[in-house]
Amino acid sequence: MEPISLRTPLALLLISLGVIAAVWWWLATPIMLARAPIDPNAKLQCVSYTPFRGAQTPLDPTTQIPVEQIEQDLTDLAKVTDCVRTYSIENGLDQVPAVAAKVGIKVMQGIWLGSNRFKNLQQIAIAVRLAKEYPTVISALIVGNEVLLRGEMTAADLAANIRSVKAQSQVPVTYADVWEFWLKNRELYDAVDFVTIHILPYWEDIPVKAKFAAGHVDEIRKRMAVAFPGKEILIGETGWPSAGRMREGALPSRANQARIVSEILDMAKREGFRVNLIEAYDQPWKRKLEGTVGGYWGLFDSMQRQVKYPPGVAISNYPSWKLQMGCGMALSIFTFAAAWLTLRRRPWTPRPAAWLGVAIAATTGGALLGIAADKMYYESYGVGGWLLWGTLLAAAIASPLLSAHALIAGRSLPTFLELLGPRDYRGKGILIALLAIVLGLTTVIGAQSALGFVFDPRYQDFPYASLTMAVVPFALLTMLNRPKEGTRPIAESVFAAVLALAALYLLFNEGTINWQSDWTAAMYFLLAATLWRARAAQIPE
Predict the structure, then answer these.
(1) Domain extents for the chain?
(2) What is the distance between the alpha carbons of residues 12 and 55, in angstroms, rounded to a whole number?
(3) Residue 482: its pLDDT value, please?
């Protein structure tokens, strides 16, 4: 090749690297809060505490938390809060008051109520005993947590349990539920010593955007004070998740969590009301019930037990952005290298559009690789989750590399027939077979996730980053190197219809203000269009 032939790809490579750097500079822009959520000079009033780490889960009745683990947690928490709220006395949590007495913090002792009356009586008996043994530690008994919301008890039965506990204990007694259920069950007001409400802007029926979350909490608190005059209104749960899917305009992120918690704490200090944050530590087990977002409400991470937002440190949604940017740039370079090596083996001059396609695929993959890897890390739960999202990420990395080869070689996007069909449709080489495998994996995982948004959407994550990395190169190949003749394969047509219909439903169900949903739906449409345009031609003997 003449040296001049390298000018176009070299220029496009430099542009690609510049775009990737600019994207990550923008994504990683940190924020500095006037007041960090965790401030050693201003302790938190109270914070929800559940001790489970890693694979530990209260969903397994045999789980028993060792006292040493609780001691370690409460010793650390005593440095940042004066109080912890618990939800149960099971799984070793009955040890919390004794440990709290040693480290010098108060406990709002939770009593977990459900539909099992015998178990309820056991919980109540143990909690009452603990309140008598540790009267200077247990500041309140919370009789039931969202049992009305779950529909496991009537308001009349709940009120009877509350009065029973009050008759046996000298500490204040309350019940905790989302604020709407207090308004629906006003008879509980007479039974409790104070009203404990949960205000979670992210989980509202109409989710609240992060910038309005603190204002929403204050508005609801004041509304409840009017509805229930004469008794204290304790905000028993409030906070924001640091990872997980968007709900309409409510975006979980590190920066949003830090900002919202900081704003709520400032507001509580100014207006003089009590607030309990949810929660101390991330709880991975909640992801089984609430999806990814359920596991990331903590101020401390689950495994290292390190505070997420040290005071005086700027907060970024991507603290490892330099590594993520570097990996993205490497993918871009490798994509151009794959195209150049293809040209070295087949020395012709490709169309400028082919190099432009390589550049778009390389830039898309490079810019999104760090986001896709970040999402895989936070959203993969259990062996199945890691296998599913790890496979999609691997396909997303392979797609621009293999598509770059096909773009420069003048090859079209392979069909499933070329991989799995009769022998007459095969025979284009190992790299094209690998591209067909990547296309197949992307299509199957894409269809599986799309159907998830149709049949069980509430806790599904949006795989927009990995899906875009994989689909854009396929679409470019179909656009630039589409075969002029051939039959439309049935498998691709069926998948195209499934993806297109699911994307339409996703847009209808999620609305148009959820950019994660819109982006994912756009990728489903793009993949559907790519599969619909596929053509299979027999390979001559």
Answers:
(1) 3-24+318-532, 32-295
(2) 47
(3) 77
